[in-house]
Specification:
Helix content is 35%, strand content 28%. The chain is an alpha+beta fold. It folds into 2 domains: 136 residues, Jelly Rolls, CATH 2.60.120.10; 228 residues, Phosphatase 2c, domain 1 (4-Layer Sandwich). The strands form 4 sheets. Strands 9-10-19-18-15-16 form a 6-stranded antiparallel β-sheet. A 5-stranded antiparallel β-sheet has the order 11-12-13-14-17, with helices on one face. A 4-stranded antiparallel β-sheet has the order 1-8-3-6. A hairpin with a 4-residue loop joins strand 13 and strand 14. The longest helix is centred in the middle third of the chain and has 45 residues.
Amino acid sequence: MSDRLTFLRGTELLASVPEPLVAKIDERLEEVQLQAGEVLFGEGEEGDAVYIVVEGRLRLESGGMTLIERNCGDCVGEIALIDDEPRSAAAIAETPVKLLRWERRDFQETLGQDPEIARGIFKMLTGKLREDVKSTVRLERERERWRQDLVRAREIQQGMLPAPRMLTESIELAGICSQASEVGGDFYDYLCPDADSTGLIVGDVTGHGFYAGLFVAMAKSCLHTQSRLSFEPREVMQAIRRTLDLSLQRRLLMSCCYVLFESRARRLHYANAGHPYPYLYRAAEGFLQRLEALDPILGALDVGAGGYAERTLPWEPGDVLVMYTDGVTEARDPEGRMFEHEALEACIAEGAGDAAESLRDRILARVLAHAGDGLQADDLTLVVARAH
């Protein structure tokens, strides 16, 4: 008896099948070899064969999560041939793997030739059912732990935000950050270098979720470290870019706008790296000005030796600055129409005489009314500053 035939007769599937029939089956099996990481079949594919693992280890995964592993002597893919449904999981080589491929039609024909094959499959499926129950319980426990971790991460991230309102002798600030998932990629913060100056930053890391939230924490830590050295916009932007460079293996990008208000000098300085343009409402003229981006989004291009651009504008009593992320202007109604800049500009013009907190609430209410009962698709941050 050949080594392969001996191996097949030792598998759970064929252990009780007469030797002559096993020998015939052996003649029709095709050897398949995979390197670690190669995919044997994907989730949702049509079942075209059943495989017997001869050497190595496979993992079965669904939705990116490992469900179970299959080792020497185990069968893979037989369920899709029995119930005639698509593959319920992907099979991926965990190590170099050697398998025997039993083609679909031949497998189904052989299944009707000997009741021992059907009995072997039934026994094997019963064992797998027990394994699946244990696997399901384990996955549910892991999902619950992961959910609890995300809840705690959200609480920590919300705790890192500044107070919703800050009031000094020279400026009123009012902000809100609403995340689309447990952990978001938006943030805002205030800095107070002295009684005359106030810094305001709004950032938006691409996407939302764990990695975006982790970088938000890194960026805020960098911001407060940088504030001990310099509050100048171009210096702050350069420091955040250096922090982003640490995570470029994930290809994270971040739009960011930082504004430094100097009330006594009645001016503001700003740097804008690819962020949606803030609106500066000039009370004296009743004019709405856009603070356009001066540099590309952080992480996209190197700004070179010249560093980040900075611009200075007047900042008079009664002036209002509105900063936001694209979760505001791109909020969609049930028909898919976006809120758009025109609607935001109309809100600012209507509430330009309001306190910063009132104008923030006016804009937010208009955005939420536009979105209706739909799910929030993106993080949303909105900050209003008013000069006294």
